[in-house]
Amino acid sequence: MVCEVYEDALLKDPANEELLSSLFMSYVRVCDYKKQQQTALALHKVKPNNPYYFWAVMSIVMQAYQANDEISKRITLPLAERMVQKYINEDKIDAEQEIQLYLMILDMQKKYKESLDILNGSLGDKLHRTVGLTRKKIDIYFELEMYAEANSYLKSLLMQDLDSWIYYTKYFDSLFKIIERKEKYLNCNGDLGSTLYFDSSIEEALTFLNELQKLNVEQKYRQRGIYLAHIELYSRLKENANKYMGNIIDLLTEYFKMFGKKPCCFYDLRPYMSLLKDELLNEFLKALKKIVDLEEGEFPKSKSQMEYYLSFLQLSRYIGIHDLMDTEKKLNLADHFLRCYHKCEIFNNSNRSSEMMANDTFVIMMAHLMYDIWVENNRLTYIREAIVVLEYAFALSPSNFHIKLLLLKFYHMLGASDASNIAYINLEIKNTQLDSLGYLHTFQMFNEGRFQIASKLYSTTVRFFSHNYREVADHLTISYKFGSFIKIIEFVEFREKLKYSIHHSMCIIENHFISLLDVDSYDDCLEIVLKMNDAPEIASESHLKKMINNRDYSVLINYNSSSRSLSPEILNQTFSHDLRLLEIRAVLLSTIYYSAHVAKEFSTYDIKSILSEVNGLNLDEKSSDPKYVDQLNLHLEKLKKLYEELESDPPIPISKSVFGSFFGSKIFGLVKSKSMLVIAINFIELIQAMSPNVKNSACTEDKWTNKMKINATELTNEYEKAVAFCQCTISKTINEIDSSLKLEGRKEVLEILTNMIDTLNISYIFLSLVIYLMKCLQTQVISDPKKIKAKRKTQSTHFNPETNYKEKLDIVHEVIKIVQSSINQILASIKSVEEAWNRIGCGNSNGLMLKKHDIDCTINDTNECNEAEKMRQITAERWRQLVDTIDKKIGDSYSGALEEMIKTLLRKQIQINKLSSF
Question: What InterPro entries does this protein's entry cite (predicted)?
């Protein structure tokens, strides 16, 4: 629309630079690259200067970027190259951005030699030596297999920057490539030219690393890079490692001595733990214990010793020491961590709430141990106890996002929606984090019965994606204005990444579903559903193939071994689960959307058919738009196929021992509550049987009526199964005998109840459409003129529209009664759950396994005892109060969720009662 306005304005004033510039930017916003090129060239013709010329060049580059076929790229990119080369030959290039654009064009054509010539030539001198350009040059050397040059260049870079890890890894890559091709470099003696010196053997590499180490020692603060480089070289040498570098234990302990006090120690050494096998592991742990210098049961006496101890504990857990313990030993160790946490409070030398406390890691590791015990025993009381300690730690360290994430995870494990929502709010997730971290919380709120909060989360997320799409367009126009060409593709890729984010699509679909909970009448229902035109697009195969997983699974801190961590295979499995769920939900919503259109079409069709019969005309059924009918049939078949696949090939859940997996997809809820899809399928077929737009002319009205009866019977059976499954699951959670089982199964009950409410809501939507159709049929019967009646009597002695209408109405009323009965039974079940859970409670504050430990003042050192007395302590009574507060928070979450479910069902009950009065 904006483009057309500027186009019309330019017809009157074709040489207006301002209008042309505005038109160009309007094309940038809609990504019309061809018209961008034409407009930029027109601008350059009006006012010849470099910016307009390079706008045209960049527009051609974007056409190549957008092209899917190589032929298009082979045409457009050489054109862009020739245009820039022309300016180079005429010595018109001055700006750095223009040179970077030329390099980008050469890279897209894989002309690496030409790119290297630019970087090493006079044009390269005009470029600022940024990290990006340095890495580009390294990459070009590798693409051209100029490993000696790369090695020499990297050596010079490392001499200037001792701590750049990417330079070390690339240096080793080039070194081993040279060694592989030693014949080529055999007679060079490390010299291919007067200024080119490179390493061609392990001995030379070690000599170079030792030189770097000397430089490092001379610095005021030693850097980690060179120490890790020795370990990295050892790992790459494999069987020859001991020959060249000695014992790996010495290298690892040397690093630990230097940097064991830093939080990065664990993450730096973790990749190399696989080098240690059997007896080497024990030897390594003994060496670390010696450095830490703490006897079993002792507590750190200084901040430095505490930091060493924490690094030791993290590495111990990673190599599997905790996995070898039984439940009792793990509980004792968790208790010890809690004692360490309290004892080490004196080492928190900052009272600022914006900083993490030094001793927080003890609590985090305690939480991991309690999770391990839950995995083994499947008792959520251990998770509840971990929550108590985490809440205490969070009060003292409110900026520690690791504690917030653990609280979010653990509260969701209990199904405590309100408590988890507080933890989520404390995380202050915003902007792109809604995409990368939103999965932690957004979909769980609906599963736990908090529909209003879920609706706000969906709306906020969808709004972010919509606003972001427009904001990226602003950044694109700014990039063209300031000539930041290398950023343009980045912005376009970022926009596409968000557009095809699976979290984005899932939020759109779920936002539509949850908006249907607030529908008040069948007229409103029809109006709202008809606006959901994005559902079929999301359900399309082309859209689903473009889905991208932008979620950040590394955010949750994890000290587990690789076998219990998120692997690429597990991440792909998780993504496939959500992709299946998205397809099912999008196809289901599409059937609702097309059913609404079919119902709307039917009302128009009905009037036409009456008029035709009155005038003696033969109405062709196909005169009604078949588009919606065909799409409804297509999506119904897809839904049936997806249901069959869910039956024959159910998704495999991720092992709960994998700590970072957070929660399984809602697809598992659908597997448990398959009735939802069967009910939806039968409702769609019911709508088909009532609409002449859908019917096959070979079938008589009696056959369609019989089909409706079959659908009604199947609906009765499926509702009975669904209600029985809900009641059976609920009965398992009401356990008053064993206090440690008070929380078991509550989250599952909430999920099954919300699935049932979702099913009942979908049923109401379909019933609203059915009633709309019945209203149309009623209009036809009432307004049937005598001329039509007489004509029908002569044409057929069997079909009676009034009788047929009454038969259909009876079937519809029967279905409404089934839904009403199901709502009543589910309401009764929820009320019984609420009463039982309130009576049972969440736990016993006196039965905690982890205790709040007061200071043990049996220390001989009076000063140390005095320091200990200054530590923040709470009495045993206050500890119980904290537990009671948390239990109340959890209990209120359950009560709030169940109350909201009851209110939602009562509202649906009223709405369905209105339908029954038709």
Answer: NAA25_NatB_aux_su (IPR019183), TPR-like_helical_dom_sf (IPR011990)
- Identify the three-state secondary structure at position 548: strand
Give the contacts of 77 (CB within 8 A, at least 6 positions apart). 60, 61, 64, 105, 108, 109
Token pair listed for 765: 């939507």
What's the pTM value of the predicted model, to 2 decimals? Answer: 0.91
Residue 103 burial by CB count (10 A; 0-12/13-18/19+): exposed, middle or buried? buried
Q: Is the separation of the CB atoms in 439 and 412 below 8 Å? A: no
Query: Residue 193: phi, psi to the nearest 5?
Result: 180, 175
Residues 441, 662: Cα–Cα separation, whole Å:
10
DSSP state of 189: T
- Cα–Cα nearest to 583, from 644, 648, 502: 502
Q: Classify each residue of 572-594 as buried b or exposed e, where b means 16 or more C-beta atoms within 10 Å of its C-beta.
A: ebbbebbbbbbbbbbbbbbbbbb
Distance of CA 344 to the CA centre of its chain: 37
Residue 210 has which token pair? 């030792």
Give the tens place of pLDDT for each residue, 550-609: 999 989 888 998 888 888 899 999 999 999 999 999 999 999 999 999 988 877 655 455
Sequence-distant (6+) residues with CB within 8 A of 394 are 400, 403, 404, 407, 426
pLDDT in tens, 524-563: 888 899 999 999 999 999 999 999 999 999 898 889 988 8
C-alpha distances out from residue 875 to 259, 335, 633, 872, 882, Å:
37, 17, 68, 10, 11
Element (H or E) spanning 197, and its range? Answer: strand 196-197
Contact by Cβ (8 Å): 851, 882: no
Length of the chain: 918
Q: Burial of 186 by CB count in 10 Å (0-12 exposed, 13-18 middle, 19+ buried)? A: exposed
Query: Tell me, what amino acid is at 308?
Result: Y
And the tokens for 821?
């009965």
Tell me, which fold does domain 1-128 have in CATH?
1.25.40
Taking Cα atoms as reference points, which of 136, 70, 65, 74 lies closest to residue 99? 136
Distance of alpha carbon 225 from alpha carbon 574, whole angstroms: 35
Helix, strand counts (H, E) of the chain: 42, 2
DSSP 679: H
H/E element, 191: strand 191-193
> Rounded distance, CA 326 to CA 377, Å?
11
Q: What is the rounded CA–CA span in Å between residue 484 and residue 47?
A: 21
**Where do the structural domains in the chain lie, given as residue ranges?**
1-128, 504-916
Per-residue exposure over 323-347, b if at least 16 CB sit within 10 Å of its own CB, e if not: eeeeeeebbebbbbbbbbbbbbbbb
pLDDT of res. 856: 46
The two structure tokens encoding residue 434:
């809604």
Residue type, 514: I
Residue 383: CB atoms within 10 A of its CB come to 19
The contacts of residue 859 (CB under 8 Å, 6+ apart) are 865, 868
Locus of tokens 């409070």: 345
Give 908's contacts (C-beta < 8 A, 6+ positions apart): 757, 760, 761, 764, 823
* Long-range contacts from 183-189, C-beta under 8 angstroms, 24+ separation: 185/148, 188/148
